[in-house]
Amino acid sequence: MNTPVLVASIAREQGITGVHTHVRQLRAYLRSVGADAEVLTPHSWAEGSLVRRALLLPLFGARVVLERVWGPANVWWYRSGHEYVLRRVLRRRLASVGACTVYAQCPVSARAALAARQGPHQRVVLAVHFRISQSDEWADKGQIARGGPVYRWIRRIEREVVTSVDGLVFVSSWGRAALREWCPEVDRTPARVLHNFVRSPRVGDGPRRRGHLVSVGNLEGVKNHRFLVQVLAQARDQGHRYVLDVFGEGVEHDRLVALCEELGVGDQVRFLGFQPDVQQRLGEYEAYVHASVSESLPLAVIEAMAAGLPVVCAEAGGIGELYDDGVEGFFWPVDDVARATRVLVSLMSEPELLLRTGRAARARFERDYDAEVVAPRLLSFLRDAEVVRTARTA
User: Fold this and answer.
1) Number of Cβ within a 10 Å radius of residue 54
2) CA 126 to CA 106: how far, in whole Å?
3) Alpha carbon 90 to chain centroid distance?
4) How confident is the model at residue 56 (pLDDT cuts 50, 70, 90)?
5) Least confident of 65-74, 116-125, 202-211, 362-371
6) Burial, 205: exposed, middle or buried (Cβ in 10 Å; 0-12, 13-18, 19+)?
7) C-alpha 36: how far from its chain's center?
8) Picking from 57-66, 104-113, 159-168, 186-195, which range would have the lowest pLDDT averaged per residue?
9) For residues 342 and 240, what is the distance between their CA atoms, to the nearest angstrom?
10) pLDDT category, 359, cuts 50, 70, 90?
């Protein structure tokens, strides 16, 4: 039974986050098999209406002020306002679509879908992209106090949502365990661990740029780009000069540029911002480096493996599930710059090792993270009512 899939999200349809990539990759796969998934966001409410677009301006625009002056109010306003508008969008659409599955990309969009659906024939499945809880992610950004009222409010909503939806999709086993640790009730809900996936890119045979590294991710504290700069500086002091291209945008940009100048590697690090064709450009590099201290399952690493790059990452969160140390890449300690530098230099100094680990990374991608392999499993869970019903009663 090909039950229609509607994707619900409080984020704009276009964007640079891993959630955006997840949705794009799912839709690309669906189109390849003659289908698609409709994406519904709060911004869908204003499509084709200047009046509605004008009404959304104060609702969304207030965040510009609140974010600067009162973080908790900003978070509450953002989540509550977007949920309200998305609920209206979903209620209007679900009134006419019949049986379907709403694939929600966050607890807020899942809560809106649960309130808007017309009955049990319209199932709601939540993708758990967040690390531990969205309350922790807001706390990491400095917008709310860990353990404060808004922090507790977010967790209360998450507990309510994960026990009310018809199914949960975890992108890593680590993510499932991290949620279960503070919310053991999650085990009441049918769930699958289905790793993130991307469509296989065209892997060219052109030469890679010797000594060139690449990293992809928003420039924010948790991504730990400072560590990458420090490793490059120490490697240079030991006589090894590497060039690093960083794709991503964020609040850490100016501080990172200043650090590069301070450590004397300003001419070795290029901050290239957001680029829509990053996946196609990865094949130019010799290795992918990643220093994030908290991840669920980063699509950027999967895309690098798809391009046949050896990967060097911290064994943080779900990253440890992506590859085996010494086979498809290496793990480095992000609390020890000296040891991490040795890991990188050892890899970059051996052309045969680069070639072998790169080939292994590509093979691991084809086996475990290719859309052709994973997307059908996800669609089976989303579309097959019997999967959810059987899991509920097991």
Assistant:
1) 10
2) 7
3) 24
4) confident
5) 202-211
6) exposed
7) 21
8) 57-66
9) 11
10) very high
Q: Which helix (H) or strand (E) holds 269?
A: strand 269-273
Q: Are 10 and 106 in contact (CB under 8 A)?
A: yes
Query: How high is the pLDDT of residue 201?
Result: 84
Alpha carbons 346 and 359: distance in angstroms, whole number: 18
Q: Name residue, tokens 């859309």.
A: 371
Query: How far is the CA of 144 from the CAs of 68, 133, 140, 155, 185, in angstroms?
Result: 12, 13, 8, 13, 25
* Cβ(138)–Cβ(154) below 8 Å: yes
Give the model confidence (pLDDT) of 103-121 as tens digits.
Answer: 999 999 999 999 999 999 9
Handedness of CA 57, 59, 65, 71 (dihedral sign): negative
Helix residue ranges per DSSP H, the chain: 18-32, 50-69, 71-97, 107-116, 134-140, 149-162, 173-182, 225-237, 253-263, 278-281, 299-306, 337-348, 351-368, 371-383, 385-393
Burial class of 20 by CB neighbour count within 10 A (0 to 12, 13 to 18, 19+)? middle
Q: Answer yes or no: are the C-beta atoms of 231 and 341 closer than 8 Å.
A: yes
Helix 253-263 to helix 225-237 angle (10° resolution) is 10
This prediction's pTM: 0.88
pLDDT in tens, 232-241: 999 999 999 9
- Residue 349 is predicted with a pLDDT of 97
Report the C-alpha dihedral over residues 351, 353, 357, 360, rounded to 10 degrees: 100
Could you tell me if 178 and 134 are in contact, meaning their C-beta atoms sit under 8 angstroms apart? no
For residue 365, give the nearest of 327, 332, 394, 338 by alpha carbon. 327
DSSP for 207-250 reads PPPTTEEEEES-SSGGG-HHHHHHHHHHHHHTT---EEEEEB--
Angle at the Cα of 182 (from 180 to 186), degrees rounded to 5?
A: 40
Token pair in block for residue 223: 């991504």
